Amino acid sequence: MGGHQSSAMLKDEWLTPPEIIKALGPFDLDPCSPVKRPWDTALEHFTIENDGLLQSWHGVVWCNPPYGRKAEAWLKKCASHGNAIALIFARTETEMFFSQVWEKAAAILFVKGRLHFYHREGVRARANSGAPSCLIAYNREMAARLINSKITGKYIDLERSDAERTILNYETHQIFRFKKEIDELKQRIKKLEEI
After folding, report:
1. CA 102 from chain center: how many Å?
2. Do 95 and 129 share a domain, yes or no?
């Protein structure tokens, strides 16, 4: 499910592109599934009729929540459950993103480009979602699914230690420094060859 914001939004129910589910699945539960759906996103589905937020979650969870302010409650439950992947807009500056993603998730995959969601009838929307999307993994197993999915984007591991980040930053800095020195040496050699 999920509501996607746009100036022309006439509804709050959009379906996850099936290729995303195929790349990340299988899933045991989709707690915010539409009542009528052209394809299954998990083995079991909760809908608006039985309110997935009030239900007990189990197994591997797929969560494409209603977007906007409602999303925070769903992400909070994903974090509490742990064994979940959520699809949301990449609104990284929001309080919700800070409290439910940056501080609680294991990893994020920022999807390259903008997704095209689907109507309840299974028809792909003509326009893209209107904003960038990201996939949130709430434990290491789910993070591995993001890595192995082959979904094009930028993966960020949020559970690296400060020491690991420091080492990676130092190594990256060294590589760029050496590359610059090599480029300067190449230019000197070229000038010497011209003499």
Report:
1. 12
2. yes
**DSSP summary character for residue 100:** I
Range of the domain at 34: 18-159
Q: Indicate whether 49 belongs to any domain.
A: yes
Residues 74/32, Cβ–Cβ less than 8 Å:
yes
Rounded to whole angstroms, the Cα distance separating 179 from 171 reads 12
pLDDT in tens, 8-17: 445 556 778 8
1 in a domain, yes or no?
A: no
Instruction: Look up residue 188 and give its amino acid.
Output: R
Q: What is the mean pLDDT of residues 103-118?
A: 86
Joined tokens for residue 181: 């020195």
Please tell me whether the peptide bond between 26 and the residue prior to it is cis, using omega within 30 degrees of 0.
yes
How confident is the model at residue 137, as a pLDDT? Answer: 97
- Are residues 16 and 41 in contact, defined by beta-carbon separation less than 8 angstroms? yes
More confident residue, 57 or 188: 57
